[in-house]
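User: I'm curious whether this sequence folds into something compact or stays loose and floppy. Could you predict its structure so I can see for myself?
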Amino acid sequence: MSDRAMQEPTLLLLTALADEPRHGYAIAREVESISGGRVKMRTGTLYGALERLLGQGLIEVHEEQIVDSRLRRTYCLTAEGRENLAAEARRIAATAREAARRLGISGETATA
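Assistant: Here's the prediction. I'll summarize afterward.
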């Protein structure tokens, strides 16, 4: 993983695949859910990002099926994708802890 922060769409896509393999439409719904409805990925953006992540070795095709005469791919994280997501989660958590410390908030107050 580079020292640069992960872009939000990448973070959301990898997070959507962290607990189980999903196909494109399910990934888009999960991204919307994770972001509290703030991020809605359009089809072209979603599949472009999935192709980029495939090329980077962060995700892989878990399964391919023909559904209603169309190919449906299910994607999952690779070991490298899981490591990158875990590193980004640690980086974000450390930053949030420092922000809370500097603001003088802690525990339950920090989530309010």
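Summary: The chain has five helices and three strands. Helices lie at 8-16, 24-34, 43-55, 79-103, 107-111.
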